[in-house]
């Protein structure tokens, strides 16, 4: 009767709970792999920025501006990936990954963007 039905329901609940725990462990592993992969991507991006970016010495202003736009676009893509990863980490109660070098590049891009927008305004005003 009712007691038997209740036991079946409890058993089914325990089975589902076990299955969800197994799925969660797999998802957590995927998040950890994504974090490692993104850390490598960010490191490569930052190294490329340092070696070939708009702050490279001896560049003409038009070339610098072209590189500034290119690296800003690349940065924006990485930043979106970081935000998505951090949301996934928070979902599983993991400590959010931090990318200090990406923050440094963002600061440099922002300063350069301000500098070159001023340069463009002066150039057009003259």
Short recap of the structure:
The protein has 126 residues and is mainly alpha-helical. Helix content is 86%, strand content 0%.
Report on this model:
The chain is mainly α and 126 residues long. It is 86% helix and 0% strand. It is built from three helices and no strands. The longest helix is centred in the first third of the chain and has 51 residues, at 2-52. It is rod-shaped. It starts with a helix and ends with a helix. The mean pLDDT is 93.
Strand content: under 5%
Helical content stands at over 70%
Biggest beta-sheet profile? none
Spans where pLDDT lies below 50 across 5 or more residues = none
Give the SSE layout.
Layout: H1 2-52, H2 61-91, H3 100-125
Helix pairs in contact: 1-2, 2-3
